[in-house]
């Protein structure tokens, strides 16, 4: 274009272009070109904003991984001469102007292959173009198209044709006013489904309100493998791409009906019948007062593919209830104390640990082998199902009914209203839940098969199935640690080796609430202990203490577990010579190490020198007490009896061996002395009866022992109604349950 030197480019600019051309070299040998289009906006005066859009294949078909050029070389031609280096605009690409073209189908009934990928790069710049009679042609050329295009002939060593894009700015010969070119509004359709109708809005917008006419048109060649981006580009006219036999620019793809475009609206329609990649040209011409001003050509590769029907998706998952005040239910895989195998009283089991490790494993439930999508626990968590439908059908209201089968019973095991999915207009997904409750029955393990059948807008059936296992709640089972020994100060450590159930748990231990569920997962535990004191303020040991642990699981169910802490504690007693009684101790069945009387061991030792004998049976290294026996003695004893437990802790109580002779006189005058008549030595003789008769043989009083621990019967000298008997002579009779009888005389005497 030697006759034109008015635009502001210099030789320094030409040197810059040469350097950038070397930077673009890695793209030169690629076969990735998908298409492009060109438009401009008049900014006023001689200034124009020009926009070049180039599309490339970013799928695996682009085997060289070819990217976009760092710049685009755009030639400016005023209709005379050639385009020289000084007539080239360098449009540098910003990475922010590179984006992926959404894979729109033009039909809601198909799903494209997942590997399909198209990217676009938008090159923009502003340039001053002085007016002239012809105007200006802006030209961009690039090679090469994908070799997999089926409707073009190859040329130049196996490469498909390149691409020439041009747009015309009208000159003063046809227009004195400003003009901006039309611009296509929608991105081109990336994929078309074979054997499915295709409809696409391919309209453009003209800023000046000019009349637009649409048509199919031939894509044009430009560039070759040896000169991938001509710089400078060649001048018009350009050669149309060569179509193979059976195809042409106005019938560019295998379709029935053929591809066509509405000249007034720009709407593209066809039904492709053969998968493949097709090069297609779409032109929009602008007219003002019947005069053609410019034309914008979109060159693009249409991908026709075999599409799968759009599918509805049904996903199942276990979700929490708001149970027991625990805000967040811990998922099974993070739970604490969950048994490896869930076991139930009816003999049914579920391999929980194995299923958590591999959700795709086949399990057998109710005699049927299946792959399970979710496991839910009655009264604890629920199953949520998310139904998803295609975005293309989101403007419709749908009600889809579920088919429910399995051993779980609707209305008993799950909500009777669980049977339909409603999708409101504007929604692409809907959540529904089973609605589980703990029905209190021991069903063990049940299952439910949920099938969802969906007919889309294209009358295609999509079916999906989810399977859920329903299990009864898992009982909380604590495992206490063996009790430790009492320390010298009366303290003792209690604890738990493990707790089985659905944890982490909340605890209340010794009146102190705490728990795993409020702590970080690293602090969760089912093993803990604490030290308790079992002596009172006076230092006396409690023979029995109940320590409660309240355990609340993830389902909000609470178990109160009690650890009874029992200690053998000596108790005070009295017995007669030759009398044998139960051992005077609380918890005398707990093994002990020794029994001392006044510091002398009397454990199975009749020769101890003291009048007591502790009878015991060996149990391991220790002894279980059988009883206490008073030996024959004429002397009363009153000494401390010491009970030594297996940890060496000692409790003491006073034990008296007394004179048990039966008196023949007593003075029930409450003035001191012998105020009661008593017969001792009746231990282990429950039912022994004592009767007192007056001198006429009439019964005035009687009583009997009511337990083996009752060692005596006592008369206070009164009638059963509380009146005092008269002084005088009486007879007593003692009748033992072993058949022995004793009797004697008794004189009641009161002080004057």
Summarize the structure.
This protein is mainly beta. It is built from two helices and 57 strands.
Total number of helices: 2
Whole-number tally of structural domains:
5
β-strand percent reads 35-45%
Give the number of DSSP strands: 57
Shape: rod-shaped
Low-confidence stretches: 1-30, 321-326
Distance linking N and C termini:
160 Å
**Structural class of the helices, strands and pairings?**
mainly beta
Q: Output the radius of gyration.
A: 52 Å
Percentage of residues assigned to helices? under 10%
Rounded mean pLDDT is 87
Main beta-sheet annotation: 8 strands, mixed
Overall description:
- This protein has 2 helices and 57 strands.
- With 752 residues, it is mainly β.
- The protein folds into 5 domains: 298 residues, no CATH class; 159 residues, Immunoglobulin-like (Sandwich), CATH 2.60.40; 90 residues, Immunoglobulin-like; 89 residues, Sandwich (Immunoglobulin-like); 84 residues, Immunoglobulin-like (Sandwich), CATH 2.60.40.
- The strands form 17 sheets. Strands 1, 2, 5, 7, 13, 16, 19 and 20 form an 8-stranded mixed beta sheet that branches.
- The protein is rod-shaped.
- It starts with 10 loop residues before the first helix and ends with a strand.
- The relative contact order is 0.07.
- The N terminus is likely disordered.
């Amino acid at each position: 274009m030697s006759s034109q030197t008015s635009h502001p480019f210099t030789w320094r600019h030409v040197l810059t272009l040469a350097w950038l051309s070397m930077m673009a070299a890695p793209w030169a040998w690629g076969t990735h070109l998908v298409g492009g289009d060109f438009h401009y906006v008049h900014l006023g005066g001689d200034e124009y904003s020009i926009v070049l859009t180039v599309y490339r294949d970013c799928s695996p078909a682009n085997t060289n991984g070819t990217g976009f050029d760092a710049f685009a070389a755009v030639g400016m031609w005023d209709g005379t001469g050639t385009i020289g280096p000084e007539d080239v605009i360098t449009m540098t690409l910003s990475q922010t102007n590179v984006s992926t073209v959404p894979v729109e189908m033009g039909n809601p009934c198909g799903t494209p292959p997942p590997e399909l990928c198209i990217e676009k790069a938008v090159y923009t710049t502003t340039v001053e173009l002085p007016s002239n009679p012809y105007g200006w042609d802006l030209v961009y050329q690039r090679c090469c198209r994908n070799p997999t295009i089926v409707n073009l002939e190859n040329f130049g060593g196996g490469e498909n044709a390149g691409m020439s894009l041009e747009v015309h700015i009208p000159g003063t010969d046809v227009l004195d006013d400003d003009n901006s070119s039309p611009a296509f509004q929608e991105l081109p359709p990336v994929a078309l489904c074979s054997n499915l109708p295709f409809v696409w809005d391919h309209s453009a917008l003209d800023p000046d309100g000019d009349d637009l006419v649409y048509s199919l048109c031939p894509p044009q060649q430009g560039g070759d493998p040896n000169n991938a981006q001509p710089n400078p580009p060649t001048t018009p006219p350009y050669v149309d791409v060569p179509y193979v036999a059976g195809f042409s620019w106005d019938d560019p793809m295998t379709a029935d009906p053929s591809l066509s475009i509405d000249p007034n609206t720009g709407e593209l329609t066809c039904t492709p019948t053969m998968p493949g990649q097709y090069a297609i040209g779409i032109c929009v011409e602008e007219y003002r007062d019947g005069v053609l001003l410019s034309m914008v050509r979109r060159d693009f590769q249409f991908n026709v593919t075999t599409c799968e029907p759009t599918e509805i998706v049904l996903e199942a998952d276990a979700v929490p209830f708001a149970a027991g005040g625990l805000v967040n239910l811990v998922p099974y895989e993070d739970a604490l104390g969950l048994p490896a195998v869930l076991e139930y009283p009816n003999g049914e089991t579920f391999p929980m640990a194995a299923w958590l490790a591999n959700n795709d494993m086949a399990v057998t439930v109710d005699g049927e082998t299946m792959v399970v999508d979710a496991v839910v626990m009655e009264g604890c968590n629920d199953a949520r199902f998310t139904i998803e439908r295609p975005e293309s059908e989101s403007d419709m209201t749908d009600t889809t009914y579920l088919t429910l089968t399995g051993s779980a019973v609707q209305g008993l095991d799950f909500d009777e209203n669980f049977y339909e999915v409603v999708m409101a207009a504007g929604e692409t997904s809907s959540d529904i839940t089973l609605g589980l409750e703990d029905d209190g029955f021991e069903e063990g393990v049940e299952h439910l098969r949920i099938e969802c059948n969906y007919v889309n807008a294209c009358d295609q059936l999509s079916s999906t199935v989810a399977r859920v296992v329903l299990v009864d709640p898992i009982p909380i089972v604590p495992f206490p640690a063996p009790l430790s020994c009492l320390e010298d100060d009366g303290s003792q450590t209690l604890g738990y080796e493990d707790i089985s159930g659905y944890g982490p748990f909340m605890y209340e231990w010794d009146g102190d609430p705490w728990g795993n569920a409020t702590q970080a997962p690293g602090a969760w535990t089912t093993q803990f202990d604490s030290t308790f004191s079992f002596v009172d303020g006076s230092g006396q040991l409690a023979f029995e203490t109940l320590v409660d642990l309240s355990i609340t699981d993830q389902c909000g169910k609470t178990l109160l577990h009690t650890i009874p802490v029992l200690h053998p504690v000596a108790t005070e007693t009295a017995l007669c010579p030759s009398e044998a009684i139960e051992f005077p101790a609380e918890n005398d069945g707990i093994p002990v190490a020794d029994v001392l009387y006044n510091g002398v061991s009397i454990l199975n030792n009749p020769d101890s020198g003291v009048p007591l004998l502790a009878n015991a049976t060996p149990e391991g290294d220790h002894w279980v007490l059988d009883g206490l026996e008073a030996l024959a003695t004429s002397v009363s004893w009153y000494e401390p009896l010491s009970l030594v437990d297996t940890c060496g802790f000692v409790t003491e109580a006073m034990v008296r061996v007394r004179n048990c002779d039966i008196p023949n006189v007593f003075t029930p005058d409450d003035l001191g002395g012998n105020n009661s008549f008593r017969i001792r030595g009746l231990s282990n003789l429950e039912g022994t009866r004592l009767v007192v008769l007056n001198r006429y043989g009439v019964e005035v009083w009687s009583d009997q022992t009511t337990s083996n621990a009752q060692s005596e019967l006592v008369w206070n000298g009164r009638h059963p109604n509380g009146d005092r008997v008269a002084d005088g002579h009486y007879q007593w009779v003692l009748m033992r349950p072993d058949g022995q009888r004793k009797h004697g005389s008794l004189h009641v005497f009161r002080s004057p």
